[in-house]
Amino acid sequence: MKNTMKNTTKYTRYVRLGIESAVIGIAVGFLISLVFSALNGASTYYPSAPAFVSRFGTPLKATVASAAIWVLIGLVFGYGSLIFEIEKWSLLKRTVINCCVYYVSFLPLAIVAGWFPLDGAHLAVFTGIYLLIYAIFWAVNYWIAEAEIHQINQCLKERADDSDNGDSDNSENSVNSDESENSDDSEDSASSENSSLSNER
Q: Which pTM value belongs to this model?
């Protein structure tokens, strides 16, 4: 029963990750194409390069095809991020494999989308830009992870300090309670002795 629930939770998580990645891929792809259309001074929206659009006859068909490619790109980056959850690998190994998986999967989709012609010069430029962007995103994510770990450690330290202070207060209260009990016992003993002396008289 527990294994079934665990597998269901994993399946749900993967499905949610796929949906979120697809939506992000479409959103990012649309924004990038919109920016490039504006920068090129086009009077109409082009989802990709004119050569790519001309393959489909109409901008609408080209947009649908582009959306499908953007979904695939989003899925590549979404599911590729799971590589960093393999804890038995070192961070360097995870980073190298993740970078290679992204590149090998993303490159053919970028070519199909018509983002650059398939020749040595453009491929070298694309590779350089890819590595630069990957390095920037990796550094930012690493810095964010370090900040979160530092914050968590700080919270744990504060809780430990509060716990130590609470134990110290409890210890002081216990000592005070013991002293009070001893004082009461002494008073009771003295009272008993006085009572005995009075009876003897």
A: 0.69
